[in-house]
# Entry
Amino acid sequence: MTLRVLLVDDEPLARQRLARLLAEHTHYEIVAEAGNGQAALDWLRQHKADLVLLDIEMPGLTGLEVAKQLMDTLPPKGHHPAIIFCTAYDEYALSAFKVDAVDYLLKPIRKDELNKALQKAQRWIEQQPDVEVDPLNTHACARTHISARTHQGLQLIPITDIYCFQADQKYITVKYHCENEMIGEVLIDEPLKVLEDEFEHHFVRIHRNALVAKDKIERLETVSNSVHLLYLKSFEEGMSVSRRHLPSVRKLMRGL
# Structure
């Protein structure tokens, strides 16, 4: 599948660099370029792009304003492009993901970081539903990423890469898929109940201290009458399922 790409940056040299990096990927086609936010919006209202590489600081409309207007004006049923922000400023990261950005890259754009972002964008595009979204469905407003502060700075993890959330006192451990089939871990301080309510379409509670991704479940094993272990794909150790949540887990697995 060839993905149609729109480059948006007020600096021609920045667009040229992105074009050179994209040229190394045969399944991405740059179909247009725009030097400001309004030009990008005008083009997107008449044409289709699968992916937008979008600067933030531009004359007139900022990249964040462009993304917000796209969210507000594009019809709920129809094509929505994936957005990767490319900017020299790191203070906009949290705002970027409030407008459903797939990733956030800091200039100068590095080849390896762009490659990872393109992989995320492709997964995001492949997972988009073709059916109309119910505007009353509150889950349509759920975040696409979880943010965590680490020693390396702000880390953004796609919801689709997360295996589980595990509570330990005031913190939540997020276990997620990373490169080379490894499992990464970060800590966040959001309540488990808030995560359960926001992402109930993606995760199921198996214990008072754990949520697991429904699409990562592999098998349920009964060790004894009181011990039941749920195994996730790529996990060697099973996770305990409480007696209270066992019926809902079994019901879910019958439908998988």
In short: The mean pLDDT is 86. The chain has two domains: 3-126, 161-255.
